[in-house]
Each structure stands twice: as C-alpha cells, then as structure tokens.
Write a structure and sequence with these properties.
This protein has 336 residues and is α/β, with parallel strands linked by helices. Helices cover 33% and strands 23% of the residues. It starts with a strand and ends with a strand.
Length: 336
C-alpha cells in the first residue's frame, strides 16, 4: 500500500475584477448588503472577448502545478477534472487537457460534484495511487460560472456569490504512509437535490428544446436556484461532521489541525466552523473575499495560495472540507 502526496500546486483566475460596487450598477444591491451576507468584496468574471473557458483556465492551472511538481508532462498517468461548467455538454474537459498537454493516451475522468467536486476528485486520484494503479495524477478544479447566472436584481442572491477560476494539484506515490493524504471521506443526501440546483438543460426534466418551444420568458429553470437558509443550516452541520469523521479516522483531535481550508461558499459558514473548532485566524484560510465562490475550483485555489504564502509547512496537518449541491460533502486529511 502507498499514500499519495501533493507535489505541485497551481491556480489561474481571470484578470477581470468585478467589485460589489460594479454589481450595484446592474442590479439592486450594494457593497454592505453583499458583504454582510457572504463576506465577498469582489470576484473574477471572464470577459467574453477573452476567449477564456473552463478548459483554458484549468489548463493554465495544470501547467503551473506540473511545473512546480518537477515532473515532465509525459510522466502524468491520469487526469481527473472536476467542474459543473464544462465547455461542452459532452465530452468533458479532461480530454481537452490531455490533448492540449500533448500527453499520450492516458485516461481522463470528469467529476460532476459541484462544490465538493475537488474533494471527490482528489479522493478518486488518491485511491488510484493507493492501490498502485497509477503513480502521478493531475487533479483540476475549474469553473466558468459568470456566463450562466442571472445578473439582474431577480437573480442577485445567486449572481453576487459566484466567480470564475481554476486550481490544480499533482499527486504522486508516497511510500511513507504517515505522510500525504491520510484519508478522504465522502457523503451525499439526494433528497435535498433541488434545494441547490440548475434544472435545465436536463434529459430527465426541462430540456433546452422544451424551453425554446414554450417561449416562456418566466421559465428560469436554466438559471441556478438556491434555498440559501436551508443550504446554510445543512452546510454547518455537515462540515462539522465530516471534519470530525476525518480526524477520528486518524486518531487526531481538533488541536491537531494546523490548517483548515474549507470550500469557499460563504465566509459566514467558514467563520461558524472556525469558532466551533476553536481555531485561530492563522489556522483557517479564506479567500472568498476576493474570488467569491468558485465551486470546484475554490479549494485548490485556496490551497495553492495558502502554500504560496508560506502558511502550510512540511509536517502540518491540513484539513480540506466541502459541502454543496446534491447535497454532497466530503473531507480530506493530509499530512503535508
């Protein structure tokens, strides 16, 4: 048996910064309203003329992660790409990255677990390495969400939250099983699926041809819907549970946490979890203030930034945790 460990981290965000004041010019909102509810001050949105997509952002983050890993591109054995916003309905962006990097015909897997997508993706990669099937795996989380949200007052509860960006890591085999990813923990509760969802287009429900045929301007099923208070209440419970589960699995207590990197959904959720676990500001990394919620990209972007800023050191116990649409949630316990 092996463990897997992270040996390269990368990120990419668009240059275009959209502040809360910018949003106040296109919808009925203001900086105070957004900051109080979410903690967000600004986010990055792709400019349409830039040509940037989920794939291109993921590719840039991947290139940085591979370069920092010290591996040659052709040493990558497998790709896992997490996103809810692929360039195409199908195929997924994993194969686009494989082609763009010029890697031989390795496998490429796409993960559709939204806000917990990166945790699910890194768990899959970890298991492939633990079993000896692959040695070096590229894991990407990338999202282009600004094109799929309602930027009017009607959609402000959603549109002020989400941003664009990408993060990536390279995992490799670690023979010392006291190091690297110690364990991952995944859960779902599908009965709440439509409390945070985008219903169309979908083969089983509203398909794009139905929307066009109905010609109903009030049909907003192609925009994401979120029952905000319900999601918040479930998130704080599930975050706590899955972090405790990971710690207990490894015979650790909350005092062992050197760095907690939560999915950047809402600063209030992160602050609630921080208080519950008695963690200092130095033990929790948040960057939602400047990027918003980048869904599957949020944890790898935050992980990369925390490492770049020297806030993660060798030997640290790092905890990753996420909750989102599905509902799905998960955690990863890492000995850096």
């Amino acid at each position: 048996m092996y463990n897997s460990k992270i040996i390269g981290l990368g990120k990419y965000v668009p240059d275009n910064i959209v502040t809360n004041d910018d949003l106040s010019k296109i919808m009925d909102t203001n900086d105070e309203w957004i900051t109080e509810r979410t903690g967000i001050k600004e986010r990055r949105w792709v400019k349409p003329e830039s040509g940037e997509t989920t794939f291109t952002m993921g590719l840039e983050a991947a290139k940085m992660a591979i370069e920092r890993s010290g591996l040659d591109t052709d040493e990558i054995d497998f790709i896992v790409f997490a996103t809810l916003s692929p360039d195409y309905f199908f195929p997924g962006p994993g194969v686009q990255v494989q082609e763009a990097l010029g890697i031989k015909t390795i496998g490429a897997l796409d993960v559709r677990n939204q806000c917990s997508g990166f945790i699910y993706a890194i768990s899959v990669a970890d298991q492939f390495i633990k079993t000896g099937m692959y040695k070096n795996i590229l894991v990407i989380g990338s999202e282009l969400q600004s094109k799929g949200i309602d930027k009017s007052t009607r959609g402000r509860d959603i549109s002020v939250i989400f941003g664009d960006g990408a993060g990536a890591v390279v995992l490799t085999r670690e023979e010392d099983t006291t190091k690297g990813i110690l364990s991952t923990h995944l859960h779902s509760e599908g009965k709440h699926a439509l409390e945070l969802a985008s219903e169309a287009p979908g083969m089983g429900g509203r398909w794009i041809t139905d929307i066009i045929a109905d010609n109903n301007p009030e049909d907003l099923s192609y925009y994401p819907y979120m029952n905000g208070q319900f999601v918040f209440k479930n998130a704080v419970v599930r975050f706590s549970e899955v972090i405790i589960e990971g710690l207990m699995k490894n015979n650790l207590d909350k005092d062992a946490i050197d760095m907690l990197i939560p999915h950047q959904a809402n600063l209030r959720i992160a602050q609630f979890i921080q208080k519950k676990f008695g963690l200092s500001d130095d033990q929790v990394f948040n960057n939602i203030q400047k990027y918003g919620n980048t869904t599957a990209a949020s944890i790898p972007i935050a992980l990369c930034e925390a490492w770049e800023e020297g806030k993660i050191k060798e030997g640290d116990t790092v905890v990753l945790a996420a909750f989102g649409s599905g509902f799905t949630w998960g955690s990863a316990i890492i000995k850096w």
